[in-house]
Design a protein that fits this description.
This protein folds into two domains: 150 residues, Aminopeptidase (3-Layer(aba) Sandwich), CATH 3.40.630.30; 117 residues, Aminopeptidase (3-Layer(aba) Sandwich). The protein has 307 residues and is α+β, with helices and mostly antiparallel strands. It is globular, with a radius of gyration of 20 Å. The strands form two sheets. Strands 1-2-3-4-5-14-6 form a seven-stranded mixed β-sheet, sandwiched between helices. A seven-stranded mixed β-sheet has the order 8-9-10-11-12-7-13, with helices on both faces. It starts with a strand and ends in a 6-residue tail after the last strand.
């Protein structure tokens, strides 16, 4: 089993092959899948340029992808695996590689945690991780899903003085400001969002915002359409804290869902941190129900434990 090289000069080709692999694997697991093309796009370009080389395909001798990792030594090592023996073998090589990368980030002899996967369900992959000393996480990122059609998506209601429309190129500064306000601790940059808008799977019609009376973006919902499977993912959605409790996030989500139907979507996906009950309630109010609550795995590594 060999890993495809992921040099920056080949980043577009790797991303395209990765997107095709993720869409193919979606057919096996549906909304319970480890990854949607929206996860791939947001995870790669949302932290541009640091994650351009984070996507790696693990292929068999015939060049057929058997596994995918998205990992830059921080946060979670996302892992998508093709069902079957070859996929499990590729996953073992991928996890071994991730352990080495993670262990190399440890400093001062301190241990470091490696998280693998977000919704690991394959019995073979679970057994692999168990055998390597990983343990199932207590909390995770549940998946919620709903069927969509123009007739059954509520018409959004917008607060007085606000308007809903697609994101404009000159909105980027306030769009980034709204995101960073909605998600404290994040540090999205304008140049990263500009790069994201150039991503091959980005559709400007599905990047919807609520604009304040002062003409600033204050709420947002970016949707990603997997055209092969007709599934649209919300990633991300939120509202600047100064404009909450006006129903703006729900309004932009509903507006974006209706637009996605026009683009061919027949179902929608969203995920949230399991401890975020407010997010779950919001998505339930938009017609979503929970379809998968499986979690990922974590292993504590010590620098000397990996050669």
């Amino acid at each position: 089993m060999t890993a495809r090289a992921d040099g920056a000069s080949d980043a577009d080709a790797v991303f395209d092959r990765a997107a095709a692999f993720v869409a193919e694997m979606w057919r096996h697991h549906g909304p319970s899948s480890e990854m949607h093309v929206g996860d791939l796009a947001w995870g790669t370009f949302g932290r541009w340029p640091s994650r351009l080389g984070a996507v790696r395909l693990w292929s068999d001798g015939a060049g057929r992808p058997q596994a995918l990792t998205m990992y830059d030594g921080t946060r979670v090592c996302d892992l998508v695996v093709r069902p079957g023996r070859a996929g499990t073998e590729a996953a073992e090589q991928a996890v071994d590689w991730a352990e080495r990368v993670c262990a190399a980030t440890a400093t001062g002899g301190e241990s470091v945690d490696l998280r693998v996967g977000r919704r690991v369900q394959s019995p073979e992959v679970v057994d692999l991780l168990d055998a390597r000393g990983f343990r199932r996480d207590a909390t995770g990122v549940p998946a919620m899903s709903r069927a969509i059609a123009a007739a059954d998506v509520d018409v959004p209601v917008i607060a007085d003085g606000y308007s809903i429309r697609p994101l404009h190129p000159d909105d980027l500064v306030s769009r980034v400001h709204a995101f960073n306000g909605a998600f404290p601790g994040e540090a999205l940059r304008v140049d990263a969002y500009r790069a994201l808008r150039g991503c091959r799977v980005y559709d400007p019609r599905l990047d919807v915002v609520a604009v304040s009376p002062a003409s600033e973006v204050v709420a947002f919902a970016t949707l990603w359409l997997d055209t092969h499977n007709g599934v649209v993912q919300i990633e991300p959605a939120g509202c600047h804290p100064d404009h909450r409790r006006l129903g703006l996030t729900r309004a932009v989500i509903l507006h974006a869902l209706r637009r996605s139907v026009e683009s061919g979507a027949t179902s929608a996906l969203v995920r949230h941190v399991s401890t975020n009950t407010a997010a779950r309630a919001l998505y339930e109010s938009c017609g979503f129900t929970t379809v998968c609550e499986a979690t990922g795995f974590t292993k504590t590594l010590r620098p000397a434990a990996v050669g």
